[in-house]
From TrEMBL:
The lineage of its organism: Bacteria, Bacillati, Bacillota, Clostridia, Lachnospirales. It comes from Fusicatenibacter saccharivorans. The gene is mnmE. This is tRNA modification GTPase MnmE. SUPFAM superfamilies: P-loop containing nucleoside triphosphate hydrolases (SSF52540). NCBIfam families: mnmE_trmE_thdF, PRK05291.1-3, small_GTP. GTP binds at residues 235-240, 254-260, 279-282, 364-366.
Amino acid sequence: MAGFHLDDTIAAVSTAMAPAGIGIVRISGNDAFEVADRVFRAKKEGKKLSAVKSHTIHYGWITEGEEVIDEVLVMVMKGPKTYTGENTVEIDCHGGVLAVKKVLEAVLNAGARAADPGEFTKRAFLNGRMDLTQAEAVMDVISAKSAYALKSSESQLRGTVKKAIRAIRKKLIYEIAFIESALDDPEHISLDGYPKRLAQVVAEQKKQVEKLLASADEGKMIQEGIKTVILGKPNAGKSSLLNLLAGEEKAIVTDIAGTTRDVLEENLVLKGISLRILDTAGIRKTADTVEKIGVDRALEHAKDADLILYVVDASVPLDENDAKIMEILKGRKAIVLLNKSDLTAVIEKEEMEQKTGAPVISISAREETGMEELEEQMKKMFFQGEISFNDEVYITNARHKQALLEAKKSLELTAGSIEMGMPEDFFSIDLMNAYEELGSIIGEAVGEDLVNEIFSKFCTGK
């Protein structure tokens, strides 16, 4: 975005470049109405878009010279009550790729500049229409892969993160200002007993930061999906389970043990929850070099899994390979699936609950039973059955998490300085660092390079 200027009038296609019912070309900037007037011919002769009321729709044609390009509806919106805070025109034309492209070309030839990726939202941020967390939520809404991810992004778009961060910053800046005032005017402002009061404020705000950080792991799973690793011995039915969950044949299934050699990943949505499911090689001792690599990869993925689905063939006894897997499950979120419940079972549900301490569900991948209970258990295990996005704030962005960690560190340093009886100016240095780290989350303390980096990830037209 090296050539970015707020004075430019920009334009881009805001809908997918694919055959559709309609396509939208968006224009934003000081000269948006004048640019539109150069290409728009209203049904009512002489009508100028620059002279009509705001937030109105007008019927006519887009033309270039004598050529009529398309029949359109044009929406006129005057700033600052627009998405970008600027004068905005949206041209609704027919959704054919060529028609949309020609309308955009006409608009660019009439004086607009092609918008950079994310430039409309960047302008909304720079014009104060939204903070940085809301701007980032726009892209999260567009790329949401599940109902929960969509709700979380919409909640952030409404300003839940901004509200929480601003509440903490308000408390901190009050204390910073008080310290600075007292140091400048010690005759009138006393700091007697102040460290004790400040320690309480710092502890309270640190607790608020920790509350936000506590939501980060759950927030990451909401946004990116729960990393779910399927573990089990060869021929336990792991690949059959993946195929059943996916609703199609994703993995090769045979009666030959060790068919799955590599990790197979699939993104699924179950009960509104996004899952990144990894089917892995069967866990067993093997002399086969390729299979051994597959087993090692399975164990490696299990280390950082959010959830392990341990598939057990209930028709055969447990052995040392099962013991190895059960050792991996210790202290981890896991669900044990007693597969092949359609056959005579030699392993009891109660036995597996005792050995693993994890919930156990009887399933049959062949008969397609037990899936509903599995889905409900996953939902209960991660989100206590439901997620409410009305009051809860979820941190879903790695940048936000890092800033919160830095803010927490600065608050801990402040608490340490108070405990050691350090001079008050030491308090304000660390408090200001925490204040600025939190400000970087909502865009009130960020440099141009970071802003450019964030918006460069957006799609063009947004």
